[in-house]
Amino acid sequence: MRTALLFVLILSVFSCQTSSSKKSEQEYIKGVYGNPNTLLKAGYSFDSLGLNAVFVRSVSLNREFYETSKKQGVKVFVEFPTLNGKEYLKDHPDAWPMNEKGENAPPADWFMGICPTHPGFKEYRAEQLSQILKEYEVDGIFLDYVHWHAQFETPEPILPETCFCERCTSAFAVAIDTVIPGESIPLRAEWILRNVDSQWRTWRVGVLNAWVEDMGKILKSHQPDAKLGVFHCAWYPADYDSALYRTMGLDPQGLGQRADVLSPMLFHHMKGRPTSWVGEYVSWLGQILDLDKNGKPLIWPIVQSHNNPGIVSPEEFRQVMIEGSKAPSSGIMMFSDQSLVEDPKKIQVMKELYSKDRPR
Questions:
Q1: What are phi and psi of 265, to 5 degrees?
Q2: Angstrom distance (rounded) from CA 351 to CA 359
Q3: Which of 312, 311, 317 is nearest to 332 (CA)?
Q4: 52 and 27 Cβ atoms separated by less than 8 Å
Q5: Which of 257, 271, 268, 262 is nearest to 328 (CA)?
Q6: Whole-angstrom Cα distance, residue 297 to residue 300?
Q7: What gap in Å lies between CA 230 and CA 141, rounded to an integer?
Q8: Could you tell me the sign of the dihedral formed by the alpha carbons of 306, 60, 351, 347, in that order?
Q9: What is the CA radius of gyration of the chain?
Q10: Degrees (nearest 5) of the Cα angle 218, 30, 82?
Q11: Is residue 53 helix, strand or coil?
């Protein structure tokens, strides 16, 4: 009898632990992106705002912020500026992405990308990521700027053709087992685009997928339980003459096979889209990833509260938060913390929505 009771007791405890574990795993992520320390400096606390996660730029991460976040019971996810080349290019001009004319591609307004096949740059980023993981026990790393040199956070995107440097074209030639004719970059670029364009686009996608894989291996080798996330351009395949795949080098399905979380950047105001587009895109992404069958990756959209371009009203902010929280989303965050501090009405909207299990 005692043995039977003991068995029941053990089973009960195990069931409770399992139930608690599942509940924890299924907790809807309610976060904010940028430098969330801005909220702390303004006198708010994360727990009082209903936040259970912060997504902090790696340049804004420090020990004090990390410890405060953990004390307030929120998860800490760190943004990692993967292919943002602005700082590195100052001392390594050979990493500059090259266009089809054989010229250095100009900066895309505020953003400057990089040649993603530059081995020194990859080593540089790998060391930076390892250093973060040695110093902080994070809940996840979110790769940002995972695309070939371009700028998409605007109604009129900047979409240059890159990169046709000797390093890229040589690697591509090896990949397709073909000698690419031409004694100059313009001649080789012309031949590639005319004769093997589809193979070129596929190869470029593969280069980015390899970046996600390599950064993921570093993350999991240091902290196996941490999530690998990817912030990515939220376009449909046909938008801007199929630029998501052709120019940016992005395949959401390929990313979904390599990452734990996808975070489409659903900045409706920047892209001149209605608020309803946010929910429509989340639904579409879930369908192409076949989440009903696969159950992964997770989808945690990032939506816009930032007042540029124009003004995002509190009510508009409420609508994109609700749209972005619709199934199959299992988390959401907004950009940015500064826009919340500047408008207490947006703080109130966030607090109200985050007081619920899922914003609705």
A1: -90, 90
A2: 10
A3: 317
A4: yes
A5: 262
A6: 10
A7: 8
A8: negative
A9: 22
A10: 30
A11: strand
CA distance 9 to 148: 57
Residues 6+ apart with CB under 8 A from 221: none
Model pLDDT for residues 63-77, shown as the tens digit of each residue: 999 999 999 999 999
Q: Which residues of the chain have pLDDT under 70?
A: 1-25
Question: What gap in Å lies between CA 71 and CA 6, rounded to an integer?
Answer: 37
Among residues 179, 210, 206, the alpha carbon closest in space to that of 195 is found at 179
Cα–Cα separations (whole angstroms), residue 319 to 47, 93, 111, 315? 23, 44, 29, 6
Please, which residues bridge with residue 81 across strands? 144
Query: Tokens 């947006």 map to which residue?
Result: 346
**Neighbouring residues of 155: CB distance < 8 A, sequence distance ≥ 6:** 270, 271, 272, 309
End-to-end alpha carbon distance in the chain: 50
Distance CA 252, CA 254 (A): 5
Residue 81 DSSP SS3 = strand
Q: Which candidate, 2, 25, 22, places its Cα nearest to that of 14? A: 22
126-142 pLDDT tens trace: 999 999 999 999 999 99
Two structure tokens written together for 347: 């703080």
Residues 259-275 pLDDT 10s: 999 999 999 999 999 99
Q: What is the dihedral of CA 218, 221, 227, 231, to 10 degrees?
A: 10
pTM over 0.85: yes
Q: Phi first, then psi: give them for residue 272, nearest 5 degrees.
A: 65, 35
Neighbours of 236 (CB within 10 A): 14
Residues 6+ apart with CB under 8 A from 317: 303, 304, 305, 334, 346, 349, 350
**Owner of token pair 């351009």:** 233
Kindly report the backbone phi and psi dihedral angles of residue 196, in degrees, each rounded to the nearest multiple of 5, phi listed first. -135, 40
E strands present in 125-241:
140-144, 227-233
